[in-house]
């Protein structure tokens, strides 16, 4: 072999070796990244179980159905007209949601009747899941918001579920926990999103909560420091929210809410959830001025007995903006459908006001009737009204940033130590020299 050919050959071997080593290193880092993503994806809670707690713990159910719904299951509310029979529609949905879940106390992985699933990634941020029921922190309720007798600020925590048709879509997004697929999210008809909201308030604070189902949860000591969790405290069921995919609605979804009410005669406390309101559109034309002239929402049904039942406290004019649908724990400057219509990426300016109108002109931007698949912002990607999908994407992005920062810092540190090896033992002191 001539000298020049030998040189070329050596360079080739050398380059291949370096490239191989780099590829191997990259492959190793990718594997580690995927493993770390999988761990965080299914992490059960932000804080560990409280010391001394011996009861059951939250276990996220994330084995999403691999195939779309077969079409065999029937959804009885789809035979009812939500505009003419809103209460019956809501009760039918409520009974479907409670079936099998009362028996297992919403530890849905034990529901023998029907499959329900959780959302991944909800344990990364300080407002993330607590370890006993997997609840995440919601906006606290200011005094007077939930009842006239409520004198102190009260924390609200919540946990959400999807039935199988909805879970199929969630599973599709998260087939690879390290790489979400956010394009083309549209839930099929039959999907139900369900959310249970618990308050730390007692029946003294909120009289209609007498004998409401109680859960113990290791929540924040104070809302200002969401990550500083205390020992388990008693929380009471106050509200149950549903999002029902129904093509007949202007926005492709029907939102509805129930409030626990002690006046209901059922022996089973969970069945004392009263239909409060139902919404199938945002009433895009209903402005403050038209409201003052006497106009009211025509795409919301409100239970006419809300004031009598004490659910609509004197401190608020309505549950949702200008009479649109909302629950007592929600901000009355917003409403179910408006807040949920912002579920999309990017998610920079959607969160605030999420329906809270800063001025009359801007307000209606948050009260448009977007169709499933239509993003809130031009050029954005819709998450089809699922704010759980939007929350978990945010947590994923935060996790990814911190993981990459940590690994990058780690790699830089290793490299620095290689170039500038520090002595591992203490340098000899001048005294012994
Ligand atoms: C101001 C914003 C806001 C309003 C108003 C609001 N929600 Fe939500 N909702 C959220 C957020 C954020 C989540 C997801 C994160 C979580 O659960 O903490 C959520 C989650 C849910 C879920 C779980 C499935 C999903 O779509 O993410 C349901 C069901 C739901 N809400 C129904 C309702 C109903 C019904 C109303 C009205 C009675 C309502 N929401 C009002 C912000 C809002």
What's the helix and strand layout?
Blueprint: H1 3-41, H2 86-98, E1 116-117, E2 136-137, E3 156-163, H3 164-173, E4 192-199, E5 214-217, E6 233-245, E7 253-260, E8 273-279, H4 288-292, E9 300-302, H5 336-341, E10 344-345, H6 360-363, E11 381-382, H7 387-419
Antiparallel strand pairs: 1-3, 2-3, 3-4, 4-6, 5-6, 6-7, 7-8, 8-9, 10-11
The structure holds heme C (HEC).
Notable traits:
433 residues; alpha+beta; nine-stranded antiparallel sheet; two-stranded antiparallel sheet; 11 strands; globular; disordered C terminus; binds heme C
The end-to-end span amounts to 56 Å
Alpha carbon gyration radius = 26 Å
The percent range for helix content is 25-40%
Q: Which spans have pLDDT < 50 for at least 5 consecutive residues?
A: 423-433
> What number is the mean pLDDT?
90
Q: Which series of helices and strands comes N to C?
A: HHEEEHEEEEEHEHEHEH
Number of spatially distinct domains? 1
Number of helices: 7
Structural class: alpha+beta
The kinds of small molecule bound in this structure are: heme C
